[in-house]
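Dear U.,

For the methods section draft, I wanted the exact inputs and outputs in one place so we can describe them consistently. I've listed the two proteins in the order they'll appear in the manuscript figures. Please don't edit the token lines directly; just add comments below if something needs changing.

First protein:
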Amino acid sequence: MPCPLEVPDGLMFGKWKYEMPNGSPVFIAFRSSTKKNVQYDDVPDYKDRLSLSENYTLSIKNARISDEKRFVCMLVTEDDVSEEPTIVKVFKQPSQPEILHQANLLETEKLQMLGECVSRDSYPEGNVTWYKNGRVLQPVDGVVVINLQKMVDRTTGLFTMTSSLQYMPTKEDVNAKFACIVTYYGPSGQKTIQSEPVVFDVHYPTEKVTIQVLPQSSTIKEGDNITLKCSGNGNPPPQEFLFYIPGETEGIRSSDTYVMTDVRRNATGEYRCSLTDKSMMDSTTITVHYLDLQLTPSGEVTKQIGEALPVSCTISSSRNATVFWIKDNTRMQTSPSFSSLQYQDAGNYVCETTLQEVEGLRKRQTLKLIVEGKPQIKMTKKTNTNKMSKTIICHVEGFPKPAVQWTVTGSGSILNKTEETKYVNGKFSSKIVIAPEENVTLTCIAENELERTVTSMNVSAISIPEYDEPEDRGGDNSEKVNDQAKLIVGIVVGLLLVALIAGVVYWLYVKKSKTASKHVDKDLGNIEENKKLEENNHKSET
């Protein structure tokens, strides 16, 4: 505390004193201007705490509340005594406030002690304010009750402020942050210190029940596992519920979940849950999607060529299903229909169906169709372009694949081994190349598990040219050729019948007129070839 007076000329000494509450002075320090010595009075409160400088500035260390006094600086000359007071104020910052005796939990609609805010060692006394989420809590009768107490320590003179808060919470107070702030005064003015915020567990009753289906999928299919979960919006949440299953009149008591495994279509319906006292209830509807497929016939089926085979793929589903057919790993454009089975109809058929809206719901059944047939043979021959050999082809149909053998009757050399084409759709061909020295007969034998078929063909000597016969081309072209051949055969047969009738009439006429007979060749086959064979035999005899 600097002395407020100017040091006058002729100063003899200076003194500091303080005034008691009753106004009486207590001297505490003396300094002579001539002897330069300092003396401190025997005052217990200031022992070893004072220091007086040459310019008469008084310093007090380890300030105390009791130092809050009126101090006076005195300067004395021979002619005058001057005095000037200094008012000392002492401040002590309080400790950070704490919320003590906190409630374990808060219940709605019930006024209860939330806690006490305590701040210690303040001087002068401070004030306490409660806050919720940063806003001041104002007293409200029956809802917010605040009681502030201030106590002073008689030894230190410091104040302790204690503020209790009674509070009636609501659901909105969940996760609310409660804090208290102490306001105190310091040398520079008003200041505040805030406590750490506290969050309380607020209990409130359940007002609504909700049922959920887990997993939360838009579609459920047969075979799935589903879990019903019931929850209440109270705190703490209910731990037990009643679950009502379609077809059951009484609720099933369970925890907050009810599990159903490998559900079937009959699980479709309304599911409900309620509190155990049946006071609240919620419901949801579950649809279990299903997909059935019935393929008739299915598995391995063996039929004979030319037979009919009705095939049906019947679908039953909870929604419109997509159906498609696959044959030998290739998707078909239409459903199979067999009015007359052919070898190319054989294969592995799959009828498959899906529900596009339901992931993973897919069904399929297979039909392995085997078309069997006895061996059928057609033989063709032609003279090769080199005029040195002839090619004889045996066209074979049948399943299981027939084994083919050749036999030659007559003189002629086989120029190479028999060759077979690829076996496709029950058809293949076997051919040999021969150079006959004379007329020969070739026999093609085809045999499978069903039958043995034998067909022979006469082949002229190499010196006699053969008319080329078209090979069996198969497929659509062969069908067209067959149709054309049937038409031609029909025309030829009609012409032959007309010629036969004309011949009979002519024969009767000649018999009556000339009584002559003629030999009619019974062979209506290849007349030109027979003539050539006769001429060749006649030359051999000569």
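Second protein (the one for the lower panel):
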Amino acid sequence: MAFQRRRHHHCNKRFRLMAPVISGIAAALLVLFSLLSLLAPSPNDAVYLHSHSSINVEKSDAIRTPVFFVPISGGKSDRHVWSSKNSEHFHGCSDANKFLKAEAITKPNRYLGIATSGGLNQQRTGITDAVVAARILNATLVVPKLDQKSFWKDSSNFSEIFDVDWFISYLSKDVKIIKQLPRKGGKTLSAYSMRVPRKCNERCYINRILPVLVKKHAVQLNKFDYRLANRLDTEYQKLRCRVNYHALRFTNPIVAMGKKLVQRMRMNSKHYIALHLRFEPDMLAFSGCDYGGGEKEQKELGAIRRRWKTLHRSNPDKARRQGKCPLTPEEVGLMLRALGYGSDVHIYVASGEVYGGEETLAPLKALFPNFHSKDTIATKEELEPFSKFSSRMAALDFIVCDESDVFVTNNNGNMAKILAGRRKYFGHKPTIRPNAKKLYRLFLSRSNLTWEVFASSVRTFQRGFMGEPKEVRPGRSGFHENPSTCICEDSVAKVERSSLPRKYGNHIPTKKNITNDGPDVDDESEWPDMEDDDDLSDENDMSNETILDYDTLNFEDTELEEILSD
């Protein structure tokens, strides 16, 4: 009995000695769990996406797909997300220096007309180049005819989209422009129709078109798109800029409605992103890429491809490796988040029919819930005067995208190119072009990466693709996309540039020996160009470039070209 009491006393004593230790361990564990709960992202602080989400996937497939954690905040960024570095030191400059006035060089009885082709932005490039062509030929330009029979099926004429009187008066010192051919002998002068080769330079126009113009007095150049060389004399390039950035102004009704849309975006937020999203079935079918929709996608896009005999079956994996596939809406969203744009950012989306509909857009909307378009910020009644005309609707999107704080595109069509050039000219506003070749590998392996590693890699790969000054060498890309002749820099930028070490690529010589005015960027041209360079001597200077299949095709089907280009 005594032994049991002593044993019981000994156990109580041991427990009293151990109690503080146990309490300390319990308290430490409680603190540890509290810290972990604070540090761990709550469901409200993150978006969970399937790391390889697809179009029209079956639910069983989605369940097996790994989940990818994406923070709702933009996180840390090594750049200001709403402005371009050093942009204040660069400005557009397109005033004429040595141009004689139009009245001094325009020859009598020499009239040039052009008929554009394609959608709004493809026609815009044709109009711009037509003014320069008229100047080269010392001819009077007749107000261009817009394409009313293309895939886009818009019956609008020039004066219903652009302010024709402003166009004529603004360019009066450069080129004489009239609204229609004059009458002679009681009849309107008849124009001789012909075509001009693509990328025709000054000598080409003088040799091919001028003799016919002198003989016939009036010539109309049909299907006038990309019919003028990319590289021209400086004064002609500056004239291109005066036309594109100053003379081509939308009509008052379009401008008023466009400003109303911009104002409503500004009412939602101080800043906004505009996304030009090309993800239509026809576009995807032509790309030949695999977007993860399985057999259903292959059948649907394959049926579309068979409509054009000129298309051949391509290797989807190779196309994506080469950066030839448009980013999916989800991939655009992930890129933007990695670049520092949080879920509170408002996005205006300019797009046509999206393949897969709402299911395809769902990941982008999950990442950026403040998702807007013309149809969500304007009433049906407000859009009614424009809704039956594709070019007028495209003009509204053009205005909202142009006025955005940041413009991003998943493609390299005409609208993306023109806006990229325009935003450079008017202050280098951030313009994000995906480095598709590098991002492809990243998207493919993202299920094995932490968000921090993924985001850091995106920011690294996107250097040189953000619309900052001197990203692209003068002479590279199409002039409408990179109007380097019309971009001037102040003395501060010149001093800073002269102090930087020069860095060149593979030292591949070119005939014209064009050099960069600033530090080179390794990946500057990896985003595919829609147009090959007009100077064939530069064909081998492709160390940093990839070309989309339809860049160099001589299209036999004009509808296909129109679908893809704008």
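Candidate sentences for the figure legend, describing the second protein: Confidence is low (pLDDT under 50) at residues 36-40, 52-65, 502-556. The CA atoms of residues 181 and 187 lie 10 Å apart.

Thanks,
Y.
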